Amino acid sequence: MRTKVFLLFFVPLIFMLPACSYKLSLDGSTIPLQLKTINVMFFENTAPLVVNNLSQLFTEALKERVRSQTRLSMVRGEADATLEGQITGYGIAPASVQATSDNRAPIAGLTRLTITVKVKYTNIANKKQNFEESFSRFKDFSGDLGSQEQALILDINKQLTEDIFNRAFNNW
Question: What is the pLDDT of residues 31-65, one digit of tens each?
């Protein structure tokens, strides 16, 4: 009886396995073979609050993500794909409120730094993948912003570039 159950259920599965397949790329992304070059343009900071090196830090972080996780050649000018945009938001706001003991106004227990980037992705090979949208990420911190600002920017840039990369190359 066991042999019959085995033959009825598992043998057909063996014949179905060759029909089931999936494609994995070495770099983890789904970049068409005809896509060979990309131009990552400078992301200007047009946010009301401006940090001097934010544009440079973000643009370089995005370039490094593309360089390290794809086979694409980075070029200036005409390319098979283009990433361009601007930093549209850089905001600091209370994330949690902390009561005070002497009837003063409450103070921020945590503060949130938020960066928003508007991105336009153009893929000449596959226009269906083109998009223009905003990405926003934040990081909460306590204490003085000045001493932590650069580290917070690096953390947020890492999150933003991951979101943008996944949207452009992993169809997420």
Answer: 888 899 999 999 999 999 999 999 999 999 999 99
pLDDT at 9: 55
**Fold annotation for 33-169:** Double Stranded RNA Binding Domain (3.30.160)
Domain extent listing, the chain: 33-169
Would you call 144 exposed, middle or buried from its count of C-beta atoms within 10 A (0-12, 13-18, 19+)?
exposed
Distance CA 168, CA 93 (A): 30
HEC-encoded secondary structure of 41-105: CCCEECCCCCCCCHHHHHHHHHHHHHHHHCCCEECCCCCCEEEEEEEEEEEEEEEEEECCCCCCC
Q: In angstroms, rounded to a whole number, what is the distance separating the alpha carbons of residues 134 and 117?
A: 5
